[in-house]
Amino acid sequence: MVYEIEVTVIGQEWIYDFFVEKGELFLAYFKLLKERGEKIARGIAKVLNNYGVQKVLDMCCGVGRVTIPLVEMGFEVIGIDINPLYIRLANLEANRRGVSNKAKFIVGDVRKLIKYMGKYAPFDAVLSIWTSIGYFSEIDDVVIFKQARKLVRESGVLIIADTACKESFLWKGPKIKSKDLVQIEDLLIITRSSYDPLTSRIRAKFSYYKFENKNLKFLGESEYDVRIYGINEIVKLLKKAGWEIRELFSDFIELKPYELGKGLNLVAKAI
Question: What does pTM read for this prediction?
Fold first, then answer.
């Protein structure tokens, strides 16, 4: 599988190392979030039905934890992700759940969205789930959402769900942990994070260990570097790209109006 990688942030393509070269280590998080993905998909489905959506593009779809449930609920969904392993696992899961003839998964870089998805357009909706923006520069993010706008029909919608924003970290005091430990089955993940207020970026180093008897075996580490936007910044960014915010929720599970301290969960319409 051949795909192109471009350097746009801090002099190195961290997403290639994090999500492709060492993407197998990060797979554990998808296991942890599988049930949440199912719940988010049900909420998204309600919103999509309100807007008369049938055909959906899922950007940065990962292993299809939201894509596949949406297909099971009757939507036609095409997912794109940069990691061939994630796409292969998504296809295997779609086959296991009997929807491989309705779900499509493609390996590709979202910065060249039209290149990979142009032949499948137009879509009724585009999804961006679980902090899949802010990986690159702000210019890159505008370009990505401009391409998404070109791929939808005139009344198409954009959903950004379960995404970190400044309000989710900074309301009622800082909530960014400098060190965090997560155990998922026999895997221990230690995360060390820092926030740069001058660039609004969180940088985190993930160290992975496996429990073997009473010992810990070091598996590897990878670094994550993401821009955290404020909601008002996202509004301006999306407007530049041809989108207008229509709804803002606290989450896509209960679909309640937005409360300060929650993540970014919005619906925008093509303008």
Answer: 0.91
